Amino acid sequence: MNSDAKKTLKKLVIAVPLMFAFGFALVPLYDVFCEVTGINGKVFQSDYEDELLTDNGRPLAIQFISTNNENMPWVFEPSEKVMKISTGEYYTATFYVKNTTNKKMVAQAVPSVAPSNAAAHLKKLECFCFEQQELMPGEEALLPVKLLVSNELPKNIKNIIMSYTIFDITDYNDEPMASHEMNMEH
Amino acid sequence: MSAVIENHHDDHHHGPAKGLTRWLYTTNHKDIGTLYLWFSFAMFLIGGAMAMVIRAELFQPGMQIVEPEFYNQMITLHGLIMIFGGVMPAFVGLANWLVPMMIGAPDMALPRMNNLSFWILPFAFFILLSSLFMEGGAPNFGWTFYAPLSTTYAPPSVTFFIFSVHIMGASSIMGAINVVVTIMNMRAPGVGLMKMPLFVWSWLITAYLLIAVMPVLAGAVTMMLMDIHFGTSFFNAAGGGDPVLFQHIFWFFGHPEVYIMILPAFGIVSHIIETFSRKQLFGYSSMVWAMLSIAILSFVVWAHHMFTVGLPLAAELFFMWATMLIAVPTGVKVFNWIATMFRGSITFETPMLFACAFVVLFTLGGFSGLMLAITPADFQYHDTYFVVAHFHYVLVPGAIFSIMAAVYYWIPKWCGNMYDERLGKLHFWLSFTGVNVTFFPQHFIGLAGMPRRYPDYALQFADWNMVSTVGAFLFGVSQLLFLFIVVKTVMGGKKATDQVWEGARGLEWTVASPAPYHTFTTPPKID
To answer: Taking CB atoms and an 8 Å limit, are A30 and B240 in contact across chains?
Structure first.
């Protein structure tokens, strides 16, 4: 084999692990892409949004959907299925949870907002989805989410759906990975 | 080293070793090409037998022959074996036989790696097939192995599946590296890049695609392995992962992969149409540019497989338009093939019959692909038999017809004997009829809403499914005729001339028939 062929070979052999690594790089890139574009309806915690408060808000319906992931046995449902609100005001909605098992469990709710272009205008000042929930056997709780929808919300959106899926993370709880993934909002 | 340019002096130079070790230890590109081709033929028959199980079950509504669990294993293995065991090794085998002879090189650039890349393949498929006999059965999650079906809900044999995919990937990557190094560095003086035969061009591009995406596939199955065994959560939502991410990574590999399975076919068909039209190929450079554009576009269209996962509107529009854009270079190629035939003095020997069927039926498959690319329509077509009809039209009368055409076209060069033309034509017409009777009705039942990957179906789909099964068995049985024809040709037959076909051009037709064990040990002179 001549030296040119060796050069070609070297380049190709380097390309293979690079593409392998690229496959793994797609994982954080995918998160970054979703975060930048907001397309997967993720809403992050905001601080005070008093500058968005207004008295001339327009009416809006917020629907709440709760889902239990896989074998999650807890009772998990919104206190109200639909809340009539007005943009530019603070509201607090609650979700009812109960640990129906006889062991201590830790849960994490993962939120999503539809339509996705509403996500940027929905401000959550407080949300149970920002923290893990630890419930004793048979314990129940009302979990709050404090929110405000900016008046900038596109006019054609008259209805926002906030969906929460609750996961059993009891087994993941010790691992730093789980808490890192769950507390990435700012 | 003699100064003589012709090669037939090399005939007695030294021949192949004798016995089994010839095949185990061989580093000769022709031997390895032969191994690849026979291996892919064996896999084609095994994967075909699985297709027969599937079609037999679907002959009538209701559960007839197999258990639903076994049916799922059949659809998974059928897909994996036909793609990674049938089509891809067949093209690598053709590349091994033809690329060195077409560019006037004595062998592949890395002959030992060539041996390795072939000989790990049987192990990969042994592992995959052995999972049929394991507790919990073989993989049953479809060839696309979407997580979490292939992680959280997979049978224990999934680990063996993952390793076999790793081995197949390593084999493909080594094969591709070999092809690139050979083509970039071992062309005879005078064979410039834009003078290379189109099959060589098609394989150069295919090899780059392989090097780019097979490692990504390896990454995807490695992530699965880690999710299953090492407690990571790449695709597990409960641990902060995302199942849709799997589909993005998989189709980032998967879409270039479908072009890996069709670009070499473009090269083959170009040669055959040119030869039997007795004209120079129309639009050589546009053919090269078309293949390059298709290859580049293949990296930005993957999400058209996932229109229904809930992509934002902007992404759906982008992937729809990008996908449709691929029709342009593909249209250029079809136009060029037809323009080559235009006013040619055409004869329809078996390779030409397969090539013409390729042009017509591949275009048909392309059209149904365009229909699927229309995002709003795809919500109706997604995961129905319309999709099944689409990709079988581009893969069976597309990729596989091109491989059969290539075998008929080059087999006189490989073994020195002409195949039986009457049997060859019979094989073509049986296959042509079988393929259309099998897959055309699947368009209808798909549009009517029959979902894919179920062992049972609603009564209104019964008639067309019965027709489809009859066609499938016709197609399946005719492949045994193909096996007979190939064996018969290898054993004997009318001696082939060196040029074989009246209109054949290219360096491979200048060497003796059968091609001597070593060709072009001194580079040929190119005018």
So the answer is: no
**What is A41-182's CATH topology?**
Ctag/Cox11 (Pfam 04442) (2.60.370)
Q: Is B305 part of the annotated catalytic residue set?
A: yes
Rounded (10°) CA dihedral B257, B263, B268, B269 = 120
For B486-520, write each residue's pLDDT tens digit.
999 999 999 999 999 999 999 999 999 999 999 99
Of B152, B214, B240, Cβ closest to residue A181: B240
B180 Cβ under 8 Å from any chain A Cβ: yes
Q: Which residue shows structure tokens 């060539």?
A: B114
Q: Are A9 and B215 a contacting pair at CB < 8 A?
A: no
Show the beta-strand stretches assigned E in chain A. 59-68, 75-78, 82-86, 90-98, 105-114, 122-127, 132-135, 140-149, 159-168
Chain B closest-CA separation from residue A77 CA (Å):
18
* Complex prediction ipTM: 0.89
Q: CB of B122 within 8 Å of any CB in chain A?
A: no
Cα-based angle B294, B296, B301 (whole degrees, multiple of 5): 80
Written out in words, the top-level CATH class of the domain with range B8-187+198-509 is: mainly alpha
Domains of chain A, by residue range, sit at 1-37, 41-182
Q: Which pLDDT tens digit goes with each residue over B388-439?
A: 999 999 999 999 999 999 999 999 999 999 999 999 999 999 999 999 999 9
B113–chain A Cβ distance below 8 A for any pair: no
Q: For chain B, what are the domain ranges?
A: 8-187+198-509
